[in-house]
Design a protein that fits this description.
The protein is mainly α. It is built from 9 helices and no strands.
């Protein structure tokens, strides 16, 4: 199976089920967070205290599944709430209080109820999850795996250039290069083909370098935000 056609729900061919889980990669990215690792050793800086209360010292964990069995509840939704009559007004991110005049027509009330809900949805209220640690956005498992692979290999072999790292990680770039008119006009002698070949190689290396830079940038942002209890979160440009 080629890299181009690899299913997006698995990090690599024949990956075990637990590695097709976004929470596995949340665990792995957090393991690369040096600030959280320091807190697990020293208790400082204190900004990681709440995260530690829920996640524990993951650096002492050798088996993700063992850790998962003991911590899965932090990702689970609490029991579904029921609609109830109350004398207490509650207004928060996931709750609104409505005053319902009972003398009004039921059809009219339902339409007004729907309108009120839609207005609050537009304001971003009611994001749909009440878990302690909901996923920040939909996760593409293969991408999470590849970002982390590039990051780890870069740390392990910092002497490699970015284009060498791209080859090491099996990254694919478009290697079709149309020589610019400028290159063709500059070299009209017998060395023209060599000049065009050199230009094409330079373009491909630049593409590989740019791709690795992108993977590393995203991986670092995921690692940093994992330490804030948010995953997968990054800046989009």
């Amino acid at each position: 199976m080629s890299l181009r056609r690899r299913p997006l729900n698995q990090p690599y061919r024949d990956a075990p089920d637990y590695q097709r889980n976004a929470y596995y990669f949340w665990f792995e990215y957090l393991k690369r967070n040096t600030g959280y690792e320091k807190f697990c050793r020293t208790g400082k800086p204190k900004k990681y205290a709440e995260l530690y209360e829920h996640w524990g010292n993951i650096f002492e964990e050798d088996d993700f599944l063992d850790w998962w069995d003991r911590h899965r509840t932090i990702f689970m939704e609490p029991p579904q709430r029921k609609i109830e009559v109350t004398n207490t007004a509650i207004n928060d991110e996931n709750t609104i209080t409505l005053t319902i005049p009972l003398e009004l027509d039921k059809t009219y009330l339902i339409s007004r109820f729907k309108r009120a809900l839609n207005e609050h949805k537009k304001k971003g209220r009611g994001h749909g999850s009440r878990a302690k640690y909901p996923l920040h956005t939909k996760a593409v498992i293969y991408s999470l795996s590849k970002h982390l692979d590039v990051y780890d290999k870069h740390l392990a072999q910092p002497e490699l250039s970015y284009w060498e790292l791209a080859d090491q990680c099996g990254l694919i770039v478009n290697e079709v290069v149309d020589p610019t008119m400028r290159v063709i006009m500059i070299r009209k002698d017998e060395g023209q083909e060599d000049a065009i070949k050199a230009y094409s190689q330079k373009v491909v290396l630049r593409r590989k370098t740019s791709l690795v830079e992108r993977h590393l940038t995203i991986a670092k942002q995921y690692i940093e935000n994992a330490g804030k209890g948010q995953f997968p979160k990054r800046e989009r440009k």
